[in-house]
Fold:
Amino acid sequence: MKKYPHHYPRTFFFPLLIIFLILSAVTYGQARGWFIPQQPIVEVIDGTITFASLTLEQKIAQMIIVAGYRENSQAWKNMQLGGIHLFALQTEHIFNNTVVDFQYDMTIPFFVTADLEGCISPFGGIRNFTANSQIKTLGEAFEKGFQEGAFLHKLGFNLNFAPVVDLQDSIWKCRSFNGTEQQVAEFAQAYILGLQTQQVIGTAKHYPGKTLVVRDPHKYIVAATIDQADLYPYDYLAENDDVKAIMVSHIITTGAMNSEGLPAVTSTEIILSLKKRFDGLVISDEIHMLGLKNFYNTSDEMYLAVFKAGNDLILNFDKDPNEIHRMIQVIKAAVERGEIPEEQIDASVRKILEMKGFKVE
Structure:
């Protein structure tokens, strides 16, 4: 019996290889968000933005802070998101280069955010900082803010998610200032003043309090009873017009601040009552923390809840650019059908743009 060689002609091999490479590139590009449409360039004249020129997608995107993974940088730029959050990197030089690369060619620059609280820090491999629990005087609190602000500003950061003003820290035991609610408020005020002398915005967290005393909301749905003392540092800072941002937690609260069975960050009652006495940025804690995510049946339900409640900035650290883009589309559809008032979106975005240093017309 005559045998034939089992091989494909060479003319088959190269077309198959090319098809394989194209499909691989398309798959990789899809995962990196390369096919997400680029938003129109925003026109800025002498530091002024014509608000009516922004698309609804651009406005929603400005309200989102994402994880600053460099492999997603083009997707984040194409969507014109509001900010990036950086985690630990090896050196100051790498941090600075990462920020420069992200900000390059951005008409509306990103908020570049960090969690530099002292005892827990993405910069631990580079430099040590004093924990809040070690602060004994107002001078020390101001110096801590000044030094941390100078460090962050040098690297290109402009928004720090600190200080923690929870009155107790039973979980990490180092994130809160020690003392009465008055002392905690004054330490926080001194820290924020020091930080903001270096052009880095401070953030008081985690409103309305008791976030560090029950269970870790990164892992669990948490409930707590809020006392008037828990609210005092936020009221003190807001009344003195010192703090420019407040972060809202995921805990379900009763007592002096009642979230009515919802996580605080998705409670309209909590957010609106805060906004009545505070005109700075209201920021959600990261929405994929299990204390929030496990409360909702679907991601879409959670997305709608955090926007409906009235948060100005939403932290979503999902690594998939396509999911961030889908989130924007979910909120856009809700606005278009009247479920979320566009005036509410507009008010948040105006606040964001002004905080970034723009005039808005």
Summary: The domain at 37-360 is CATH 3.20.20.300 (TIM Barrel). The first strand starts at residue 44 and ends at 45. Residues 81 and 132 are 31 Å apart (CA to CA).
